[in-house]
Design goal:
With 178 residues, the chain is α+β, with helices and mostly antiparallel strands. The protein contains 4 helices and 10 strands. The longest helix has 10 residues.
Length: 178
C-alpha cells in the first residue's frame, strides 16, 4: 500500500482524531471549510478507509461518511466532481458525527453551562455498520466477522468509543468552544 504524504502547507490544516479505545486507530482530516473535512481512518498510521465529515443542509447536524479506501479519491483536483473522486469506493457507514467538549454535548449546552475540555466525537452508527461490512463467510485461515484480525478488532473497538482531538481539529467541529 502506498503512503500518503501531506505537504507542509496542508499539514497546517490537518486534524488528527485519536481513538480513546485504541490509539493505533486515528482519523486524519484535511481541507477544512465550515465544518467540512476529508481524509482517512488509519490503523498504525496506514490509511484503511476514506473519511468525510460535514454539515447537513437544513437542520445543520454534523455527519460523517466512511468509504472503502482508494488512493485516487485522495487527489484533491478541483476539476473532479464528487462522484468522479469516489467512483472506485463504496460507502460503508454514514451517520451523525456527534461533537462533545469534555463530557458536554456541544450542540445543546447553553453558553452559561459550558466548561472547557477536549474536543471529541462519537459516531453512533459506525460500530454496527463496520461490523456488518466485515465478511461473514470466510475460508479457513481468513479473517472475518467471527475471526477478527488484530486490525479488524482494533477498528471495531475504536468505533465503539470517542475519537479525541489530538491536534488541529477546531475547524472541523461545527459545534464546540474553547
Amino acid at each position: 500500500m502506498s503512503v500518503i504524504l501531506i505537504s507542509s502547507a496542508s499539514a497546517e490544516n490537518l486534524c488528527t482524531l485519536t481513538s480513546e479505545e485504541d490509539q493505533e486507530v486515528t482519523i486524519t482530516i484535511d481541507n477544512p471549510g465550515s465544518g467540512y473535512g476529508f481524509g482517512t481512518l488509519n490503523y498504525k498510521k496506514v490509511p484503511s478507509f476514506l473519511f468525510e465529515v460535514g454539515i447537513s443542509n437544513g437542520y445543520g447536524t454534523q455527519y460523517y461518511v466512511l468509504r472503502t479506501f482508494s488512493p485516487d479519491a485522495l487527489n484533491m483536483d478541483s476539476k473532479k466532481t464528487h462522484s468522479e473522486r469516489f467512483k472506485n469506493t463504496k460507502v460503508l457507514s454514514s451517520g451523525r458525527f456527534v461533537n462533545f467538549v469534555g463530557s458536554q454535548l456541544a450542540r445543546v449546552t447553553s453558553k452559561k453551562e459550558r466548561k472547557s475540555g477536549k474536543l471529541k466525537a462519537l459516531m453512533p452508527t459506525l460500530p454496527e455498520d463496520y461490523y456488518y461490512y466485515l465478511p461473514n463467510n470466510v475460508k479457513k485461515g481468513e479473517h472475518g466477522r467471527f475471526n477478527l484480525s488484530t486490525k479488524m478488532k482494533a477498528i471495531l473497538n475504536a468505533s465503539e468509543g470517542f475519537f479525541i482531538d489530538s491536534g488541529g481539529c477546531d475547524n472541523f467541529f461545527a459545534y464546540g468552544w474553547q
